[in-house]
């Protein structure tokens, strides 16, 4: 007998309570199937741990028909063969060889937009089997050459910062237990955390808040390297970095190697900070952040780092203080640099909306499209700008009671404005002239017919 397939042995072990019985009483098979389906299994080749009743039942009847050989998984007769038309197969393979980085979805789009297949008719599974059969499927070894990765380090502190988000614990936020996220910015040369904070989300606003604190404490980086998530792609973050003179750089998708130092920091935080936390002592989110910042300043930044040649992150950062860019005069208007600009159309009453509130802007802007400048952290509207960023006036909360006594501006009418006379035909004048022409031709004046008469008048 050939060596037994490991999957067949596993299936037989699952069927043990069934195959060991010579006879099953009425209803006993169904009961045993339900019991076996309720157990957890270490299933080979998958991370699942449960098996359905129907699957176990199929294995049982297959064993009864053919023994353990019937439990051996059968390979598909068309394995490695594609049912796609030969012309389509050739086009897909040529497109993949031409650019090995093309994904299955990209290949399908290319076939659709080039008119070779109708939209929605090319299954992903068919393309995958075709690529797999020709050794062009990336998971089984792509045709492209392996990418070269080398360790590197910024020469000076402040040259490169990295930004990333890590899933954190659940804490009390406004009376409810919520999951929080750790947003961190790290200096590449010194491994110093310019700022890190647990936030209620991983949105652009959370990242901008951490960046604002980081530049206040540690100056301005030359480059900020982040991933391709939608929060980092937000136009608000791009605008802030542009105003601060920071080059925002995105890592290539699915290439986390560019932020290996931050990944290493996340492991350190889990092992040395989160593992030491006493949940009973954590009252809320601010309490959790207070402990994080104390641990960073008192322990992490003051411990020697193996890659810093005996220096601590704080010592390495302070070594380059003369080279680090400061905010300078921009520090006084840092809040302004982090304002958001939102496109709005001014209503006829001279107001615009934001966060369920209405704000008054100069009435001359009614009907125009403007940019509403807001402070996203306080949710207050500040001012109004045009498309070029020029200030058009202030935005103040609408006070409907005060407006009842407010004197409104009335457009002036020039005293010497000539009276407008219509040159074309006028329906009212035509009707008037025809009516009087008929009346003048009659001997006696025409008495208008009353619309309704009383009963006495009818009699």
List the helices and strands and how they pair.
Layout: H1 6-14, H2 16-19, H3 28-37, H4 53-66, H5 86-98, H6 104-113, H7 124-133, E1 160-173, E2 176-187, E3 193-199, H8 204-218, E4 223-226, H9 235-244, E5 247-250, H10 260-272, H11 285-298, H12 313-319, H13 334-337, E6 340-345, E7 351-354, E8 357-360, E9 369-375, E10 380-385, E11 391-394, E12 396-397, H14 400-403, H15 427-440, H16 455-458
Parallel strand pairs: 1-4, 4-5
Antiparallel strand pairs: 1-2, 2-3, 6-9, 7-8, 8-12, 9-10, 10-11
Helix pairs in contact: 3-4, 5-6
Question: Could you describe the 3D structure shown?
Answer:
By secondary structure, this protein is an alpha+beta fold. The chain folds into 4 domains: 6-71, no CATH class; 86-140; 160-323, Nucleotidyltransferase, domain 5, CATH 3.30.420.10; 339-403, RNA polymerase II/Efflux pump adaptor protein, barrel-sandwich hybrid domain (OB fold (Dihydrolipoamide Acetyltransferase, E2P)). Helix content is 34%, strand content 16%. The longest helix is centred in the middle third of the chain and has 15 residues, at 204-218.
């Amino acid at each position: 007998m050939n060596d037994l397939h490991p999957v067949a042995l596993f299936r037989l072990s699952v069927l043990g309570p069934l195959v060991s019985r010579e006879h099953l009483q009425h209803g006993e098979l169904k009961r045993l199937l339900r019991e076996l389906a309720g157990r957890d299994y270490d299933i080979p080749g998958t991370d699942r741990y449960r098996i359905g009743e129907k699957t176990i039942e199929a294995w049982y009847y297959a064993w009864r028909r053919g023994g353990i050989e019937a439990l051996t998984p059968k390979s598909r007769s068309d394995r490695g063969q594609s049912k796609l038309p030969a012309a389509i197969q050739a086009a897909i393979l040529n497109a993949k060889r031409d650019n090995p980085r093309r994904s299955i979805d990209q290949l399908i789009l290319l076939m659709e937009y080039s008119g070779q297949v109708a939209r929605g008719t090319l299954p992903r599974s068919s393309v995958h089997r075709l690529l797999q059969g020709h050794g062009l499927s990336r998971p089984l070894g792509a045709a492209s050459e392996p990418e070269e990765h080398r360790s590197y380090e910024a020469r000076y502190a402040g040259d490169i910062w990295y930004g990333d988000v890590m899933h954190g614990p659940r804490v009390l936020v406004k009376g409810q237990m919520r999951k929080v996220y750790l947003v961190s910015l790290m200096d590449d040369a010194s491994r110093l955390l310019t700022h890190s904070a647990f936030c209620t989300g991983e949105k652009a606003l959370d990242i901008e808040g951490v960046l604002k604190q980081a530049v206040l404490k540690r100056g301005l980086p030359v480059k900020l390297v982040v991933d391709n998530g939608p929060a980092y792609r937000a136009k608000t973050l791009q605008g802030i970095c542009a105003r601060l003179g920071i080059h925002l750089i995105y890592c290539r998708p699915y290439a986390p190697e560019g932020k290996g130092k931050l990944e290493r920091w996340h492991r350190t935080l889990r092992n040395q900070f989160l593992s030491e936390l006493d949940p009973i002592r954590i009252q809320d989110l601010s309490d959790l952040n207070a402990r994080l910042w104390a641990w960073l300043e008192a322990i992490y930044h003051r411990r020697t780092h193996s890659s810093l040649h005996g220096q601590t992150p704080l010592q390495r950062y302070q070594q380059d203080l003369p080279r680090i860019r400061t905010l300078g005069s921009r520090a006084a208007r840092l809040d302004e640099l982090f304002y958001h600009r939102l496109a709005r159309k001014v209503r006829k009453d001279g107001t615009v909306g934001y966060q369920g509130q209405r704000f008054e802007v100069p009435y001359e802007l009614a009907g125009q499209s403007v940019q509403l400048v807001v402070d996203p952290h306080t949710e207050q509207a500040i001012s109004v700008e045009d498309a070029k960023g020029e200030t058009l006036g202030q935005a103040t909360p609408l006070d409907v009671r005060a407006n009842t006594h407010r004197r409104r501006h009335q457009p002036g009418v020039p005293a010497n404005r000539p009276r407008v006379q219509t040159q074309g035909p006028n329906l009212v004048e035509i009707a008037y002239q025809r009516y009087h022409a008929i009346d003048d031709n009659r001997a006696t004046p025409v008495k208008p017919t009353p619309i309704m008469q009383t009963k006495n008048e009818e009699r």
